[in-house]
Design a protein that fits this description.
Elements lengths: L1 H17 L1 H38 L2
């Protein structure tokens, strides 16, 4: 009886873990999109200042 319970538990764990990969990839995609959005907003907000700094360094 104990072997049956162990087999069932092992198979259920394998099935649960097999379906988890797509969710993790989607979460990383959302995280990456958020980081890209923050970088784009920062670049747009600081674009003029950064341009001025480079112009003063490299005339």
């Amino acid at each position: 009886m104990k072997r049956l319970i162990v087999r069932i538990n092992t198979r259920l764990t394998d099935v649960r873990d097999a379906h988890d990969h797509g969710g993790v990839a989607a979460e990383y995609g959302v995280l990456l999109a958020g980081i890209v959005a923050v970088v784009a907003v920062a670049a747009a907000a600081l674009g003029g200042r950064i341009d001025g700094i480079f112009d003063s360094i490299l005339p």
